[in-house]
Specification:
The chain is an alpha/beta fold. It has 20 helices and 26 strands. Helix content is 29%, strand content 16%. An 8-stranded parallel beta barrel has the order 5-8-9-10-13-15-17-18.
Length: 746
């Protein structure tokens, strides 16, 4: 077996400068200092000199690269590690690299061919990869080190960048069954973090950011597709769970702390920082009744309310720009003039409604984001924009879409390695494909927009290379696997994460029931059951919950509700699919076998129906509650909120009701049993019922999709409002509205 790169690294220390880490020993010594010999010619030029600014070095290197090298820097895609390859004939000698070519691979984003890792790095000149698996810290460090050792063999050493979506949240509150847990310190979901911040303060974000920065840097993963600055306005948008809620002021404050904490400084990236790609500009939640642009039905961003774009959706991105976010990701969608009210830019001018995806929309990128808002970083597209999600530019060839995206301001394209398409766009520009060879330029476009020039490639490369220089990767991209394990195991980080899980719990209702102290439970029997969308998941989760409860002092469990003094019900509803449209609108009621209307091809209510289940066995909740109440017992329910669930089928039957947001069950139990007093506050408003989400025959929702829950009452029909002028938010039997910032204490 070949020796791993992690065992072959040589370090050259500068007394007053960066350490040079290399496997090839291509190093220049001058003025008593060490510099990496990036192209191997032995000369100390601008891009090799770490005393120069990252911007100077990036520009100089970009100008020195071949067109082929610059095209390799233009793409990134999901990639497998060698340990994931089942056929070991297609793994390199170290066991770290997947070398299997794929003739035709399909995903939600694209259909494309790939080659093995070595060929991708050496021949395709690719340097950026997306990791979606969940390796251990030392495995991850070894893998990234191995790819960087290959990169040293190129014409120019350009370090490999491994990118990932966020890894420091508990992505699924299923008892003992979260595949993404156990590696990095896992905090609650982002809405849970927002709930905790609302209750306990912004210092939580400082701890969270510092943890991310140290853990990711330790393994060598230096760039994250995180976090979502989207303000949650359409409750039926499935990606609500990944937001920090519906409060644009809070989201803005969170990013003011999060970005410098992760990236390393207020000014931007540092060598021990991690680059952030903030998403999804100009805000992804202005949906049309929840439909997402991952699929065709959701390709439009709709702004029904005058100036909602500037009021609710833009502010969080202003914080990202102010705090020097390394890159910003535009969303797939395209703006709709026909279905939108008047919107204005930051200079008071009407928005230009160009009906193409935001990654192709030069008005939103060049005029609004860069010129008016002052963004200085680079643009990273969402995955699949030049293939499956090319909304508004479907008539163009893939090579033309690549060129158009770059022309609009995109510097790196995610979701496929369309190397040949980019080469074709470059050849067409060089050879006069449209000008001298008689081919027709696509209507509505110029030759410059659908071809790639040397200048365009150089500019894009300079933007992404600057990030790598700022991170110090050209000097030392390598990390010690043993150190990675040590850092990720830092006890304080896991303790902080656990503390925020407790703080994320919101107490919604308490009729003198909570906390369940030992005095209250002494000699009493407790019935416990978990409900999930899938019945079998509920059964498994119930067994795990019972194991936890068996460790509680004074708790006697019973499997019979009719014997119970207390019933503990943990509910984990789920609705829809991430990448596919539902037959109807995304169901938000906690229900089992509910008949709901379909939607037609235009997204309007249809006459046909189908059934939806968000929680298997939901009808049993009222039965259990009646049984327990009949003997004078109490019911405590906890609901996991990944979406703004309608709780009317649960709340009336609960004496105590709690909300979690991908919060660990043991943290909820700490609140239930009084070991932790609840502080969390709601980051979203819960809709009253289906009436406030009703869609007209024309496809228009009665509560505007582009306005957060706390402000929807401004636009609701007067006849729907109660004596307090409220129509939208759920009101419980105690008279409390489950709206933004609500949360009880003991």
């Amino acid at each position: 077996m070949k020796e791993k790169a992690s065992s072959r690294i040589h370090y050259y220390e500068n007394s007053q400068g960066p350490v040079i880490g290399t496997c090839s020993d291509k190093v220049i010594r001058e003025d008593g200092l060490y510099f990496r010999d990036i192209n191997g010619d032995g000369k100390l030029n601008t891009y090799k000199d770490w005393r120069k600014s990252p911007e100077e070095r990036a520009r100089a290197l970009a100008e020195d690269l071949s067109a082929e090298e610059k095209i390799g820097l233009l793409f990134l895609n999901s990639w497998k590690m060698g340990m994931e390859q089942e056929d070991k004939d297609f793994v390199d000698e170290t066991g770290l690299l997947d070398e299997k070519p794929v003739e035709k691979g399909s995903s939600i984003f694209a259909t494309s061919s790939t080659v093995g890792t070595t060929e991708t790095i050496k021949d395709w000149k690719v340097r950026t990869f997306i990791l979606r698996s969940n390796p251990k810290p030392d495995e991850l460090a070894d893998w990234i080190n191995e790819m960087n050792s290959l990169a040293e063999e190129g014409e120019h050493f350009i370090p490999v960048m491994v990118v990932s979506n966020s890894r420091n949240e508990n992505g699924e509150v299923v008892f003992g069954m979260n595949d993404a847990s156990g590696v990095f310190a896992a905090w609650p979901g982002t809405m849970g973090i927002a709930a905790a911040v609302k209750g306990d303060g912004i210092h939580i974000i400082d701890d969270f950011a510092d943890c991310i920065r140290r853990e990711w840097d330790a393994v060598g993963m230096k760039k994250g597709y995180m976090y979502m600055a989207d303000c949650a306005t359409d409750p039926r948008w499935q990606r609500t769970y990944g937001t920090f809620g519906e409060d644009p002021k809070l989201i803005k404050e969170i990013f003011e702390h999060l970005i410098p904490g992760v990236q390393g400084s207020q000014e931007g990236l540092t060598p021990d920082g991690v680059a952030m790609t903030v998403k999804h500009f100009p805000g992804g939640s202005a949906r049309e009744n929840g439909f997402d642009p991952h699929y065709r039905q959701g390709q439009w961003n709709v702004y029904q309310t005058k100036n909602s774009l500037e009021t609710y959706h833009i502010p969080p991105f202003e914080a990202a720009i102010e705090k020097n976010a390394s890159s910003i990701m535009p969303y797939y969608a395209k703006p709709s003039r026909e279905k939108s009210a008047d919107q204005y830019d930051l200079q008071g001018n009407p928005i230009e409604w160009k009906p193409v995806g935001f990654a192709f929309n030069d008005y939103f990128i060049q005029e609004l984001l860069k010129k008016q808002m002052g963004f200085k970083g680079y643009i990273n597209s969402d995955s699949g924009i030049v293939q499956n999600m090319a909304w508004g530019v479907e008539e163009l060839e893939v090579c033309e879409r690549v060129a158009l995206a770059v022309h609009a301001g995109v510097d790196i394209i995610s979701g496929s390695y369309d190397i040949e398409a980019a080469k074709e766009a470059y050849r067409r520009g060089k050879e006069g494909y449209y000008t001298t060879q008689g081919h027709k330029v696509p209507e509505g476009y110029t030759v410059e927009q659908v071809t790639l020039s040397d200048q365009a490639l150089t500019q894009a490369a300079a933007h992404t290379l600057r990030e790598k220089f700022e991170l110090g990767l050209f000097e030392n991209p390598y990390r010690d696997p043993r150190k990675a394990v040590e850092v990720v195991a830092t006890k304080k980080d896991w303790e902080n994460a656990a503390d925020v899980h407790r703080k994320s719990v919101v107490l919604l209702k308490n009729q003198g029931t909570l906390p369940l102290t030992e005095e209250k439970t002494e000699g009493k029997k407790v019935y416990a059951q978990c409900f999930n969308k899938k019945e079998e998941d509920g059964v498994k989760a119930t067994e795990e919950l019972k194991k936890m409860l068996e460790k509680e002092k004074g708790i006697t469990l019973t499997d019979k509700p009719e014997e119970a003094d207390y019933a503990l019900l943990f509910l984990t509803p789920s609705s829809g699919e991430y990448f596919n449209a539902t037959p109807g609108y995304l169901e938000l009621e906690i229900c089992d076998g509910k008949e709901v209307c379909d939607v037609d091809e235009e997204g309007r209510p249809a006459k046909t129906t189908h059934t939806e289940t968000t929680l298997s066995g939901a009808k049993k909740i009222s039965e259990i509650a009646k049984t327990v109440h009949d003997r004078g017992g109490k019911v405590i329910a906890n609901i996991n909120f990944t979406l703004a669930w309608e709780v009317g089928t649960v709340e009336p039957y609960a004496d105590g009701l709690l909300a979690g947001f991908d919060t660990y069950p043991w943290a909820v139990l700490d609140v239930i049993f009084g070991r932790f007093s609840p502080v969390g506050k709601m980051p979203i408003t819960l809709p009253k019922d289906d009436s406030v989400l009703k869609v007209s025959p024309e496809g228009v929702c009665i509560s505007p999709n582009d306005v957060p829950g706390y402000d929807k009452d401004k636009y609701m029909p007067e006849k729907m409002k109660d004596e307090n002028g409220k129509a939208y938010a759920y009101r419980d039997s105690a008279g409390n509205y489950y709206e933004l910032n609500f949360g009880l204490q003991y």
